[in-house]
Amino acid sequence: MSRTKGPERERWSSRVGLILAMAGNAIGLGNFLRFPVQAVENGGGAYIIPYFISFILLGIPLMWIEWSIGRYGGSLNHGTAPGMFDALWKNPIAKYIGILGIFIPLIILTYYTYIASWTLAFSIFSLLGLLPEGRIADGITPAQYLKPFEEYLGSFIGATGKGIFLTPDLWAYIFFLFTVAFSLYILSRGVAGGIERLADFAIPTLFVMALILFVRVLTLESPTGADVSPVDGLAFLWEPRFEGLTSPKVWLAAAGQIFFTLSLGLGAILTYASYLRRDDDIALNGLTTASLNEFAEIVLGGTISIVSAVVFFGVAGAKDAASGAFKLGFISMPAILSHMPLGNLFGFMWFFLLFFAAITSVMALSQPVIAFFEDELFWSRKKSVAVLGIIFFVSAHLPIFLKGALDEMDFWAGTFGLVVFALFEVVIFVWIFGSERAWEEINRSAQIRIPHIFYFIMKYITPLFLIVILATWSYTELPKVLAKKDGTIWITRIFLILVLLGLFALVRMAWEKREAKG
User: Fold this and answer.
1) Which of 238, 256, 259, 402 has the most Cβ atoms closer than 10 angstroms to its Cβ?
2) Contacts of 26 (CB under 8 A, 6+ apart)
3) Cβ pair 153, 330 in contact under 8 A
4) DSSP codes joined into one string, 218-250
């Protein structure tokens, strides 16, 4: 049952604001941390070709599908997946499947906000010269050079002790509280007055800082005098190597990164697109947003991190320096930047652009829950933001203080859940709502002509791609996760189940009230 027309919903105030807000949703820590790690681990140039193919066959079609579902749902005063799926598919189960579009961003929000606070803390620490200093000497290995920075991060987040609990530094908790308060303040200002205004400032500033670092990195010299230059780093990333085309591992890594880089399968794009007007363009706007994201990820994020690591440690050493997103972002990069003249300033820029990337994503992760409260429970903006604040402040203490909780949440919500939800989106919109109606909806008021080949890609190739990814992950990764016996893992899983049950109860209550009103 679709909701009867209610009060006029908020709208984006300008096209530029919309694009920057959507770009802020997509441009996150994954662009500057996860992409370089994936590229290094999967052979650089061998990874890029499957990445671009996945972008065309998976990323662009899903992006247009999510924009279309969101705009369609927004025209019916639905800002989240339960209402949108219910409108697209006249089946009682549809709204409950849509719960994933609230559950996933809410769970990611509980740990992503905490990580965002690290970037803010490290930006201030770097500017004040409080981070360790790196000094390269003859015979020192990358592991030895990075050790002080690794110990600093471990001490900051409290990961150095034994037992099941983390004991973060007091400053870590203070910066977390500030990040939560700042986020809630922006959210309380609304879509146009808060989220859009933040994006209008944060995204251009992010690009300026990233471009400064980009130029600086291209002038780096090896600190040991080794015969390695930025050209070697660029060659590692961009020199085509076709062996990746025959590697299932590389294909899975590339396809998985597309979800992270475009924020697909989260439910956030659905909500942001619901604030479009019925006849606003989504074809060109969506493509523009995706292009901004790809520029940030490949040209800036990939170049800054990979070239720096290759110049400082060589290709072999770069693989160790980029052996994890946290290691690359919070250990290797500050170690590299500290060795440069004006290293404190460059370190500040690095972490502050990460903060802007993270905080704009926090806005996007928060909005689906707020929109559900506003659209389906008819709560005020202030009440919706306050309740969300209580929920994610309390929930965040699980990844802050319990070892293994962050990784467990990230697998179920931030990895596995994305593909499951995206598959539901394609099936419901393209196959149940109807491929012809879906194609017509995507092209409504389009300012560019979408090639008709994408009709067949969306109908056949994209869902097949998703099924293959889901089946492969279920076969290779799911048994490993389920085999974990650590008691802390079960605490986290019980928490996830309770959140799902709570959202189920809220959705059921909302629809019962609506049916009672007729």
Assistant:
1) 259
2) 261, 262, 263, 289, 290, 292, 293
3) yes
4) TT---TT--S--HHHHHHHHHS--GGGGG-HHH
Q: What is the DSSP letter of 136?
A: -
**What string of DSSP letters covers 149-218?**
HHHHHHHHHT-SSSSSB----HHHHHHHHHHHHHHHHHHHT-IIIIIIHHHHHHHHHHHHHHHHHHHHHT
Q: Which residues contact 133 (CB under 8 A, 6 or more apart)?
A: 338, 343
Which residues face 165 on adjacent strands?
Answer: 402
Tokens 């015969």 map to which residue?
227
Give, in order, the Cα–Cα distances in Å from 244 to each of 49, 123, 452. 8, 37, 29
Beta strands in 391-453 (DSSP E): none
Strand (E) positions, 194-318? none
Per-residue pLDDT of 122-137, as tens digits, reads 999 999 999 998 776 6
Cα dihedral 198, 272, 176, 506, rounded to 10, equals: 140
Question: How many CA atoms lie less than 13 Å away from 168 in the CB half-sphere?
Answer: 20
Query: In this structure, what are the phi and psi dihedrals at residue 165, rounded to the nearest 5 degrees?
Result: -105, 145
Whether the Cβ atoms of residue 106 and residue 499 lie closer than 8 Å to each other: yes
C-alpha span between 40 and 42 (Å, rounded): 5
Among all chains, which residue has been given the structure tokens 């085509």? 240
Residues written for the chain: 518
How far is it, in rounded angstroms, from Cα 348 to Cα 445?
A: 43
Residue given tokens 């890029």 in the structure block: 48
Query: SS3 of 341, please?
Result: coil
Interval 323-347: pLDDT, tens: 889 999 999 999 999 888 899 999 9
* DSSP assignment letter at 246: G
Question: Which string of b and e fits 468-495 if b means at least 16 CB within 10 Å?
Answer: ebbebbeeeeeeebeeeeeebbeebbeb
Fold classification of 15-517 (topology level): Amino acid/polyamine transporter I (1.20.1740)
Domain boundaries, the chain: 15-517
Alpha carbon distance 344, 350 (integer Å): 10
- Helix, strand, coil content of the chain in percent (nearest 5): 75, 0, 25
Helix (H) or strand (E) holding 94: helix 94-97
Query: Which two structure tokens, joined as six digits, stand for 168?
Result: 């973060």
Regarding pTM above 0.90, the answer is yes
Residues paired with 402 in a beta bridge = 165
